[in-house]
Amino acid sequence: MITELISQLIDSLNRNGTAYALILMLSAFLGRLWAGRYARKEDARVQERITRLQGDLQDAQSKLAGRVDTSVHIHKAQFEKEFAVYQQLIKDMNKTRTAFYTLHPMLKEIFDSPGAAHEHSKPYRDDFAGAYEAVKSTIEDNKPFYPREIFTSCDAFIELCVDEIASLRSGPGEGVNDWKKQEHMKKQFGQLINEINDGIRCRLESITVID
Question: What is the pTM of this model?
Fold first, then answer.
């Protein structure tokens, strides 16, 4: 029924010469309507991509700002001095720990008298005392060249050495600290050196060197 009415309308319009014009107008209207809808969809997609890219850019800027804020900018000459201090510090600490382990081996020798034990231990006692004096000088003389958190561990290392020095001065041979105390101190030496190594590594990673 509707189809017949439309056909009659078109026939009528054809007789009047206006059907073709109406079809052109309708086609133009539908074309504009479709183009508008397509454009709005594309605009929405573009805006979504822009928003996503802006978010990514803000995240990248925030991360970069964070790295810049946490980075320490120091002059090249200061970095070279600080790096040399770290090298000497670790060298002296390892030497001190080795001297302690040598003085207090896992397997103890048996001597006929305290005097014989003391004579055997004396060169190792002297080695430890010399290593202690060296590491103490390195730490005390270079305080301005490393951060406080590293110095805190260094200070604990010195206190541990002082404990051993006090033991050696209080008795002959291996001092007055017993085997259990000596083994505990060995672990402390290792832990403190690891802490200082980690602190130095973090410090170097946070540094930006400028000329």
Answer: 0.63
